[in-house]
Amino acid sequence: MKLVLPVLNFNLGYTLECGQAFRWERYPRTKGFDAGVYYGIIGRALVKVRYDNPHLILESDAPLDKEEISEYFGLNDDLKRILGEIDVDKNIHKAIAKFRGLRILKQEPWECLASYILSINNNIPRIKILIERLSELFGSKLSLDGIKRHTFPKPDKIANADLKTLKGLKLGFRARFLKNAARKIAHKKFSLEDLKNLSYDEAKERLISLEGVGEKVADCVLLFSFKKYEAFPVDVWIKRYMESTYFNRKKVSAKRVGEFARQHFGRYAGYAQEYLYHYVRCK
């Protein structure tokens, strides 16, 4: 199936390679964000996507729902207005000028949660490896244009997996956190669906009740899956940058950074975070 969606003010490379999602690969693997096409998983489908201004072009052997795809890529976001609201100082202005067109994805909640549990004390290349190992062992096979991938395993698959098997995939201490979260979701003791109707603070409190899920992981899930734009994930990169730029090099807590960001950037602080994060990582 082929789907063509008109969209302006969009950059596919910035959106898929800014660190918010881990299952997209660019072919050919050249340097730069504007070459080649991307293959990745959306739901249960392996998708090929490219951007030929002003059209986002997707192909898959599976059915593609226009509204679902539009939501996934953030095409319904009024990016011009959002960037206008967060463009409040010279620092964020530089990031916006360099990476305009970056949009926040709306990822599947369980896969997003699991992926960010695997991100704890980890780096992006290794996170990708761990996700692929899990998917190869517990997911279903997919193929497109000779490229073979696997769906991300559902919670019950992880819940029923032996902890030793999970640790054998080199998940380390994250294996227990992942299995416990999967078990709660599979056994209906925790509902990701319920988070949609909660306020940001309520949803975050609920997520942090899961073993191993701290403020950063919770904020990532709320921003990249539920589009709660108040979320401002604070990892090592962002904390160091914010302290240096906005706190006169003074050491402050991640919680204080988040509070400041929501006040400083406003209701779309999460968008500011992602632009600054990508800007800092690419410097």
What does this structure look like?
- There is one protein chain.
- By secondary structure, the protein is an alpha+beta fold.
- It folds into 3 domains: 2-76, TATA-Binding Protein, CATH 3.30.310; 78-102 and 229-283, Helix-hairpin-Helix base-excision DNA repair enzymes (C-terminal) (Endonuclease Iii, domain 2), CATH 1.10.1670.10; 109-224, Orthogonal Bundle (Endonuclease III, domain 1).
- The chain is 48% helix and 12% strand.
- The chain is built from 14 helices and 7 strands.
- The protein has helices spanning 12-16, 66-72, 79-86, 90-99, 109-118, 124-138, 155-159, 163-168, 174-186, 200-208, 215-224, 236-246, 254-265, 269-282, and strands spanning 2-6, 25-27, 37-42, 45-52, 55-59, 141-144, 147-150.
- Strands 1-5-4-3-2 form a 5-stranded antiparallel beta sheet, covered by helices on one side.
- The longest helix has 15 residues, at 124-138.
- The relative contact order is 0.13.
